[in-house]
Amino acid sequence: MNEWTDAVRRYFDQRNQAWVSQRLDPVREAAAADAHPAWWADVRAGFERMHYAVRRRGSRLLRAHTRIRLHPLQGPGDGAGTGEMITVRIDERITWVYQDGPGFGVESRTVEHRQRWVRRGGRWCLDQAWEADERIGLHPGAGARGLAATGSETAQGGLRDWPEFHTSRACTRFDRVRAQRYADLWWNGYHPGFVRLEDDCTNFASQCLFAGRLPMRASGTRAAGWWYRFPSGGRPAQWSFSWTTSHALYLYLVNQAGAREVADPRELRVGDVIFYDWAGNGRFHHSTIVTDFNHQGDPLVNAHTTPSFHRHFRYLDSRAWTPRTRYAFVRMPDEFCPDM
Fold this sequence. Notes:
Blueprint: H1 3-21, H2 25-30, H3 40-56, E1 61-74, E2 85-100, E3 103-120, E4 123-131, E5 146-148, E6 172-173, H4 176-186, E7 196-197, H5 201-211, E8 228-229, E9 238-239, H6 241-244, H7 246-255, E10 260-262, E11 273-277, E12 286-293, E13 299-303, E14 308-312, E15 326-331, E16 335-336
Antiparallel strand pairs: 1-2, 2-3, 3-4, 3-14, 5-7, 6-16, 8-9, 10-15, 11-12, 11-15, 12-13, 13-14
Helix pairs in contact: 4-5
Protein name: Putative amidase domain-containing protein
InterPro entries: Amidase_6 (IPR024301)
Pfam families: Amidase_6
């Protein structure tokens, strides 16, 4: 195995241990970093946020397990490096087991990293580190740009068999179990029938609602309705703003789909949606789908952008969270009727 891959794996092994031990010195030692590297404060703050969030809900971490996949972007093997530097993308899948009252809970997350390692004094050292989160991902300004320009025309064929694919004149019941199952199946992946976006949280939430039989409402403009047009005959996929934008989806659900905002998150049920206004300025920037509850009755959510499974709804461990963060707890109706 290459020396640089050994160094990266040692670093992530120590990160994994630190979730429970709360000892961060071995993490910095594994990085062979200077006394105060520029990226260290952010890494340390990430651990502190996680433990603060766990303490706030009266719990504690018991175990952690990390798996990583390495994707070299630039280095000795591509002719762009000198043998002394490597830039790599790392996909880190973390699973935590935590105390949940008399039982246990499990939460998972996939985090994308970009790191630059350099060789100094015969040793690989972590020189720069970036980590994606719910704010802007790794590419500021990218927003809703598609990573895959369209969903696969072949892959989306089976979706046309779903009853909610066609506009219905009859009332349709919301299938919360189907919405939950879709969220649990695709939280760490991307359905090939839909576009994949860099800021994918609301696209994912819309897919879950669609799986739960929320009918599409077609419109001739992206600014109205809630719809997704699959690619056909060489035409790329198209979608409404409400399909992929948090604030627009919130407005559509509460104003046109019969959903209502509730004050207490414990009033929510599986399949309901939580919106996040990080800055407290009245606009929502993130969307999640409720998939479970902890022993205290707090919602646990699945989400994209940072793929998350059964994450505590408050997101106190996110770099996007601020003391001004406001939540909208949106309760979906049990039935959708055409005149809503």
